[in-house]
Specification:
Layout (H helix, E strand, L loop, with lengths): L13 H11 L3 E6 H6 L10 H4 L5 E8 L11 H27 L4 E3 L19 H7 L4 E2 L5 E2 L7 E8 L21 H5 L5 E2 L2 E2 L1 H8 L4 H12 L3 H8 L2 H12 L9 H5 L4 H11 L7 H15 L12 H4 L7 H18 L1
Antiparallel strand pairs: 1-2, 2-6, 3-6, 4-5, 7-8
Helix pairs in contact: 1-4
Bound molecules: cobalamin and iron/sulfur cluster (2 copies).
């Protein structure tokens, strides 16, 4: 008789795990080896490695859930903010289901707390594992100029998580070709409202003012101010837009993170961009002469071989060692060819 939880522990086929992940609703799936992730932490000073979480983890199954492009065609940011929450829920469900199925086969497995950060790592700005770096190691894409992971399929318009398992699975090959077009594109930099995009880096505090309008930093700032207020001012502070924002964040996450869609919306990587966004996102209203000059300086720095921290020998692994080789142009040509074929039918 076969009971749930009985440890049979047969070997598991990696291709079958990926097929099952897609069947459950993931949009992409790849596998990274825990040994590789332990050997290459994104920042060795603050190691985000599976080993810190469990010494028994052998593989990490990485799943991607895309954000529907329609939300980036709207008049306000609200639809993206709301969708983020739905996409994350869906992603976590798929991850949990897959972990349970692996465990039923006899291999202890669990889904990562993908959105939560660790208080002990860089004052809580670091997660247990960096899922972007998991994605790169699992062969799903490479990091862009604004450090989002860009997949050839959906550019950066996605969320991703990992399932940590004790079964050894055949890992996928890391992409060595850079998916991001790079400094000559810089559309993410042009679009960023607080000008937080660096050269394969990010001013995180700057980004958080837009990306987490009612996030943790804003909550603590509000209460610090509140504690020093006169009784009269406290009354109106309690009824302010801030408190409403915090309440909405608690209710549906809207506003507490995933608030700013701009670098996601304008990135020209991915067939979802060619199909649904190229027309309306072509023009970037936030583009200024200062941002154009900043992008030109980045381009020059790379050309002259200057020291760019985001492109250090250690970081290149996740940016794509072979540099940009025209993947976006190739995809666009193929997309147009397929469209012409469809029109003929
Ligand atoms: C915290 C966080 C944020 C915070 C950061 C807050 C802060 N004050 O630090 C803020 C608010 C900025 C943020 C914003 C966004 N986020 Co966020 N965020 C996270 C979270 C929870 C953890 C990030 C983390 O741990 N990073 C890991 C470290 C390694 O990243 P890093 O600092 O960039 O690492 C570099 C530096 O360490 C640098 N480095 C610097 N100094 C040194 C020195 C040495 C010696 C070395 C070697 C390296 C080094 O090299 C590293 C490699 O590039 C992840 C979820 C997760 N579990 O990963 C989501 C996550 C990264 N966020 C995500 C998203 C979608 C966003 C937003 C688009 C949301 C939005 N629409 O508003 C924006 C995008 C901003 C951007 N361009 O990156 C997605 C990414 C999807 C994608 N396509 O990449 C993630 C993966 C969530 C998920 N589960 O899918 N986020
Ligand atoms: S999420 Fe918004 S604020 Fe943050 S880097 Fe992207 S465009 Fe800039
Ligand atoms: S907008 Fe351009 S520069 Fe920015 S991440 Fe996308 S491809 Fe790279």
């Amino acid at each position: 008789m076969l009971r749930q939880g009985m440890p049979l522990a047969p070997p598991v086929d990696a291709a079958e795990v990926k097929r099952r992940a897609l069947e459950l609703g993931a949009n992409l799936c790849g596998i990274a080896s825990a040994a590789t992730l332990n050997a290459f932490p994104p920042d060795p000073r603050w190691p985000q490695t599976p080993d810190r979480i469990s010494p028994y983890c052998k593989s990490v199954v990485v799943i991607v859930q895309r954000i529907p492009a329609g939300a980036f065609r709207c008049k306000s940011n609200i639809p993206v903010q709301y969708l983020d929450m739905l996409v994350l829920r869906r992603m976590d469900r798929v991850a949990l289901k897959l972990a349970q199925e692996l465990e039923r086969l006899g291999h202890p497995s669990f889904a990562l707390a993908a959105q939560e950060t660790d208080w002990n790592l860089k004052r809580a700005s670091y997660a247990r594992l960096s899922t972007r770096h998991l994605g790169v190691e699992a062969g799903l894409g490479t990091l862009g100029l604004e450090v989002n992971i860009l997949t050839p399929e959906f550019g950066p318009r996605l969320y991703l998580t990992g399932i940590l398992t004790e079964v050894e699975l055949e890992p996928d090959q890391r992409m060595e070709e850079q998916v991001c077009i790079g400094e000559s594109c810089s559309r993410c930099l042009h679009s960023c409202p607080p000008d937080a995009v660096r050269q394969w880096g990010l001013d995180k505090a700057g980004c958080a003012t837009e990306a987490q309008e009612f996030g943790y930093a804003q909550i603590t700032r509000f209460f610090e101010k509140f504690l020093g207020m006169e009784k009269q001012d406290r009354k109106s502070a309690v009824r302010s837009r801030d408190v409403f924002g915090f309440w909405q964040g608690l209710l549906r996450v809207v506003g507490s993170f995933g608030d700013c869609p701009r670098c996601l919306a304008v990135c020209p990587v991915g067939n979802d961009y060619h199909a649904h966004l190229a027309d309306i996102q072509k023009h970037i209203p936030e583009k200024t002469p200062e941002k154009v000059a900043k992008a030109a300086a980045f381009k020059q720095a790379r050309k002259s071989g200057d020291d760019v921290p985001g492109l250090s020998a250690w970081n290149r692994r996740w940016v794509g060692e072979k540099g940009y080789q025209g993947i976006v142009a190739r995809q666009l040509q193929e997309f147009k060819r397929l469209q012409k074929e469809k029109e003929k039918q």
